[in-house]
Amino acid sequence: MRVETTINADIFEAMLIDQMLFSDHGAFRSLLKEISQSDAKKCIFNLSGLKSIDSSGLGMFMIALDEARKSEWTLTIKSPQGHVKSLLVLGRFDKLLNIEA
């Protein structure tokens, strides 16, 4: 997984690129720490460049949701595509997360 981040006012956006796998867990935890330390009020995970995700990657979104609640920022998943979008729907993540097309 590659990550490109931007902060605009109180919005932290992280573009997740390529694959999101179990091996990315440490990097993802570091990203969550960076978001929480930024004092952002909203975080957007832009998935338009994410080509695949495994079950651990899906679980990382649940960890992010928990961290968002603890640190009082909102979480939005933006622009999932193809396989990633299908897995989010099949796993009913749209019932737990705010997912924008």
Question: How would you describe what is shown here?
Answer:
The protein has 101 residues and is of the alpha/beta class. The protein has one domain: 2-Layer Sandwich (Transcription Regulator spoIIAA). 39% of the residues lie in helices and 37% in strands. Helix 1 runs parallel beside helix 2. The radius of gyration is 12 Å and the shape is globular. The relative contact order is 0.19.
Main sheet specs? 5 strands, mixed
Quick one: overall form?
globular
CATH homologous group name? STAS domain
Instruction: Report the strand count.
Output: 5
The CA-CA distance between the termini, in Å, is 21 Å
Tell me the fraction of residues in β-strands, as a range: 35-45%
Treating each run of at least 4 consecutive H or I residues as one helix, how many helices?
3
Which CATH architecture would you pick? Answer: 2-Layer Sandwich
Could you say which structural class the secondary elements and strand pairing correspond to? alpha/beta
Share of residues in helices: 25-40%
Mean pLDDT: 96
Q: Could you give the order of strands across the largest sheet?
A: 1-2-3-4-5
Tell me the radius of gyration: 12 Å
